[in-house]
Amino acid sequence: MPPDALMTPQKSARQRQQRILEILSALSYRTGELKRYLNEIAQGVSELIALDWSTVTLCRDGSERVLASTIDLGEDGDQVYELHGTLTGTVCQTGCPLVVEDALVTTEYGEAPEGYRAYLGVPLRTPDGEVIGTICSFQHQPRYFTEEEVRLVELFAERAATAIDNYELYQQQQQFNEALEDEVIKRTIELRATQSKLLEANSQLELRVEQRTAELRQVNQRLQAEIDERKQAEEKLRQSEEQLRQIAENMSQVLWMYSQDGKPIYINPAFEKIWQRSCQDWYIDSAACWDAIHPDDRDRVRTAFEQALEHGYQEEYRIIRPDGSVRIIRDQAFPICDETGQVYRLAGIAEDITERRQAHQDMMKAIASLAEVGELASMIVHEIRNPLTTILMGLNSFKRMSLPASAQERLALSLDEAERLRGLLNEILLYAKPHALQCCELELNGFITELLGSIRAMPSAMQRQIEFVPADQPIKIKADKDKLKQIFINLIDNACEAVPDGETITWQIEPKGQRVHIHVRNGGEPIPPDVLPKLTKPFYTTKSSGTGLGLAIVKRIVDAHGGELSIESCAAQGTTVSVKWAIAHS
Asked: How many Cα atoms occupy the beta-carbon half-sphere of 510 within 13 Å?
């Protein structure tokens, strides 16, 4: 089967789940091979969540020793380190996973190794609950770890803890056997040396033998209990593997696998729904399934498949089902290697993207229609503005005449309405006009500090307090400087108009991972939940004199920059408008 050139987030997640299943299935602990097994676990963790360094450590008596590492530690690999003041010490002390996105910022959990900033630590817990070590993962750059990644490392930690526990049990058994053998030899020598006293000491010896037998029985019982606990742990691991198998069986995408010599090995039931052929047909006569590929695509896909053992492939092709319907398939294949790096399998994931492709085409048609509507709106606004300007000129000429009070009142009302209409037309034109961005790199703390003076001089802000809370360190973004000013002027103006004189408006910069959140917060009356989603819709306003285009224009500018605008409101904290922006990395 073949894959395509585009990867969706869902597909990437499915590929990752397949890789997890492969790594877990490949792990096999054998007695005495603890180091190799733990190295496979460390390598699997680093690969699955894309880490710079992963280790498996044994922690006892306030110190730790590295049992496995994804990088060569050289002579330092045999050293014993103190746990006090380290991130690993925190994991062992609490017995819980520890996630530190940036160890230079979050220092209360201990220090990270030099050159590393992000940290994920998961304790190794034996079946009886004892923490015997950790799986520690490090990243040179700060990063965020998801709950799914933490659970994945916990799954590997269960296997590592079981292996170490089994290994120690094995060592204890060996030591016990050696001690028992030494004891038997010693007793034999003593018996030979004291044969003359055997009759006198016989009763005492029998008593001692009985006592020793009872002790051995107790030891055997304890060992049996530990073996039973280990079997329970293995059963839990088996159940986890069964869950992964069920995931594969219930995927809506086709999961397939070929041997190195091109023989079909596995395909999940989704094949029958998409291809409308039985899985048995695929195993028996896979050539018939190749014939289902559209003739115009067949040679291209077969060529890619034949070369897939080297570097995989991504393909998009059409199939013709038995009922004559044509479906578009997106397929991705990737080679699977053994421990030596030798390719011995070819696997892939295929999905039906026919409806998605059709939806994309429909969306492009809708976008084209909206563009035509926007262009028409701009033409109408221009046509209205010209006669409106003439009307305003005529009304303003009347102001210089001596008119009765009633006529002057009507004239003032007409001028106000005409000016409001002109402002509305200008905002409609601004909303309909495409946003051509001239982006440059801006440092937010300095940019907002420079903008504060003109913001505080706005009529709506003069009787309010504008409190700016900068970020702890410089943060740079890429944005159109004038458009960014327009965003914040509008948001601060709205926040000021929503509260009485003397109230405080908080303007805060808050970095979060790879993005920065800029909050504008006021303590006015909360906005009803049913109104919140409508605030960024064109022509929707809660003001008596508003046009309902301010926030709509702000949202369009934020969207054009690839940002995100959100509004939250409650009685306890007031209303917060947040602009979320990607941080620029030099």
From this structure: 13
**Across residues 248-255, what is the average pLDDT?**
83
- Amino acid letter at 76? D
In 405-545, where do the E strands start and end? Answer: 439-443, 465-469, 476-480, 504-512, 515-522
Distance CA 556, CA 552 (A): 6
Residues in the chain: 586
Q: What is the DSSP string of 27-92?
A: ----TT-HHHHHHHHHHHHHHHTT-SEEEEEEEETTEEEEEEESS--GGGGG-EEE-TTBHHHHHH
pTM (two decimals): 0.35
| DSSP H or E run through 267 | strand 264-267
Each residue's pLDDT tens digit, 206-244: 788 888 888 888 888 888 888 888 888 888 888 887 887
- In angstroms, what CA-CA distances link 223 with 173, 214, 234, 338, 547? 9, 14, 16, 36, 80
Interacting residues of 279 by C-beta distance below 8 A, sequence separation 6+ = 267, 268, 269, 271, 272
Identify which of 568, 555, 579, 489 has the alpha carbon closest to the alpha carbon of residue 522: 568
Classify burial at 460, counting beta carbons within 10 Å of its beta carbon; exposed 0-12, middle 13-18, buried 19 or more.
Answer: middle
Q: What percent of the chain has pLDDT over 70?
A: 81
Summarised one tens digit per residue, pLDDT across range 101-134 is 998 888 888 888 888 999 999 999 888 888 988 9
> Pairing between strand 63-69 and 80-82?
antiparallel
What residues contact 160, with CB distance under 8 A and at least 6 apart? 38, 41, 56, 124, 133, 135
Q: What is the pLDDT of residue 3?
A: 43
Side chain identity at residue 183, one-letter code: E
C-alpha 462/C-alpha 444 separation (Å) is 23
d(CA 232, CA 238): 10
| Beta-bridge partners for 315 | 331
pLDDT for position 2: 44
**Radius of gyration, alpha carbons of the chain:** 36
How do residues 480-489 score in pLDDT, each as one tens digit?
888 888 888 8
- CA distances (Å), 360 to each of 115, 355, 364, 365, 373, in order? 45, 9, 6, 9, 20
